[in-house]
Amino acid sequence: MSRGLARRRGGPQIFWEAGGREGGRPLLLIRGLGRSSSYWLDFRERLEAERWVVVMDNRGVGRSESPDRGWWTEEMADDAAEVLRASGVERADVFGISLGGMIAQQLALRHPHRVARLALGCTTFGGRRAVRVPPRAALALARAIARPFDESIRRTAPWVLGPETLARRPDIVETWVQIAASEPRSRRGVAGQLLAAARHATYDLLPHLRAPTLVVSGDADRLIPPENSPRLAARIPGARLAWLRGAPHDFPTERPEETARTLLAFLG
Fold first, then answer.
1. DSSP string, 90-149
2. For labeling, which of 34, 130, 179, 205 is most exposed (least CB within 10 Å)?
3. How far is CA 230 from CA 120, 215, 258, in A?
4. 237 is in which domain, residue-wise?
5. Angstrom distance (rounded) from CA 184 to CA 181
6. What distance in Å separates the CA atoms of residue 126 and residue 197, rounded to the nearest whole number?
7. Of 62, 98, 82, residue with least CA distance to 179
8. What is the pLDDT along the chain (268 residues), one digit of tens a residue?
9. Could you say which DSSP state residue 38 is in?
10. How many separate domains does the chain show?
């Protein structure tokens, strides 16, 4: 296991950590809105059995810095490229979920030499052509920013996990609360990430993406409408589309084994 801080010129310090199978092909994981790398939980462990896994805290959350101004997914992608450089990885497969999927798109577009294969989970190309986040979900996220972090996590959990999982596995939400309590949290940072997601727009650029790509989504996603996934796959040359039937937005947490199996089958 290794860890460190990456900083590109003029950017914030970005925390990263790497571990897993020595000599395994590198795999970069990029989490979504308000989530640090600690939230990968046992999904990360399943991947580390097969791969050398690099994780990072996106700017604004966890152990990474939060700039004073707003930012864009392009800048977050540049952070990810710097993390790969700092961790000694020249080229990696990349899996990004939600906001992390938006960052992963930008990473493959802006730094194509860094991305071998690309997997995009429950995400969107954004902009006016995308199916928008339901107003109730957007309002819930906006309100959550102003609340205490433990209350915020409990209020937003029904938007990212299925009702059966919430009833059967309340320990997941409590683990999230413990992570939030143990790490630095910044309302400004989460707001900055929310702004970056709202600004994201790659529709016109995606036909230029050359990395072999998998788009994977749960068809019970209540946060980012699943209709975005086939539209996203259609914009990327040769992209494959995979569905996790009945899965919610945070399917790596709810179905870690199935997600890891789907991901590794594509990555090889």
1. SSEEEEEETHHHHHHHHHHHH-GGGEEEEEEES---BSTTSPPPPHHHHHHHHHHHTS-H
2. 205
3. 12, 8, 20
4. 2-267
5. 8
6. 8
7. 62
8. 999 999 999 899 999 999 999 999 999 999 999 999 999 999 999 999 999 999 999 999 999 999 999 999 999 999 999 999 999 999 999 999 999 999 999 999 999 999 999 999 999 999 999 999 999 998 988 888 888 888 999 999 999 999 999 999 999 999 999 999 999 888 899 999 999 999 999 999 999 999 999 999 999 999 999 999 999 999 999 999 999 999 999 999 999 999 999 999 999 8
9. G
10. 1
**Quick check: helix, strand or coil at residue 199?**
helix
Contact 19, 1 (CB under 8 A): yes
For residues 85 and 81, give the distance between their C-alpha atoms in angstroms, rounded to a whole number. 6
**Tokens describing residue 239:** 């992209």
The structure tokens 């086939």 sit at: 230
Cβ-proximal residues to 93 (8 Å cutoff; 6+ apart), any chain: 25, 26, 27, 28, 51, 115, 116, 117, 118, 119, 267
Residue 48's nearest CA partner among 22, 86, 81 is: 22
- Cβ neighbors of 152 (< 8 A, separation 6 or more) are 144, 145
Q: Which residue has the tokens 């940072």?
A: 189
Structure tokens at 267: 């990555």
Determine the Cα–Cα distance for residues 54 and 153; give it in Å rounded to an integer: 25
Cα separation, 203 vs 265, whole angstroms = 27
